[in-house]
Every structure is written in C-alpha cells, then in structure tokens.
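input
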Amino acid sequence: MADNLFFSESHEWVRIEEDEAYIGISDYAQKELGDIVYVELPEVGDNVNAGESFGTIEAVKAVEDLNSPVSGEIIEVNTELEDHPELINQSPLDNGWIIKVKLSDVSEVEELMDEETYNKMVEE
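output
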C-alpha cells in the first residue's frame, strides 16, 4: 500500500509527491461507471478547491462530476485522455490520472482517507 495515496468520499484519489499531487478516480469508481467515453479536462493554470468540481467524466451509464480532493493550481492535464478516455478503465491509479496540481495547502490531505479506510467504505 502506498503511503502517499489518499482517497476522497467522492471516489477521487490523490497521490502526493512533495508539494504536487496527481488526481484521478478510484478503481471502484471506474468499475461503477463502466466504459468511460469522455473526460472534460480543465485548463493548465486553472485553480481547483478541495471538494469542488474541476470537470466531468462521461461513461456509457452516467455523467459524473470530478471533484478535487485538494486545492491548488493545475500544472498538468493528462491529454492522453482526450483520445483514450478508456485509460481510466484500464489503469485508474497510474496511466488514467486526470490532473496534476501544485498544492496550495498540503494539510488538506489530512482530511482524506488512506487506502485501507477507503476500501472499507466501498465494501459497506
């Protein structure tokens, strides 16, 4: 289990690397959504706030908001998802990352769940 990987109640994950964070959706979320067909990506330079939407993800079954687990400035977006949104289904915790953020408040991570706690939540 990675100790720099955290989860939100809305099923997004965040992987912390110093003062930057990769954000995507959990394996559980991608399985619940089914085949992902489109991801609305924000712009580099946009600011995100913890708990607020930064885009949407569209699957065959539903369209869901993407909520940021942390606050900061978007410094990179996964442009591979424009042509290959299925990367989220194939590799949600690696190649399927959605945005990379320069954290404005690292302490927000303390509000998130570790992987073990998250897995218990989705099993209930």
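quick obs: The radius of gyration is 13 Å.
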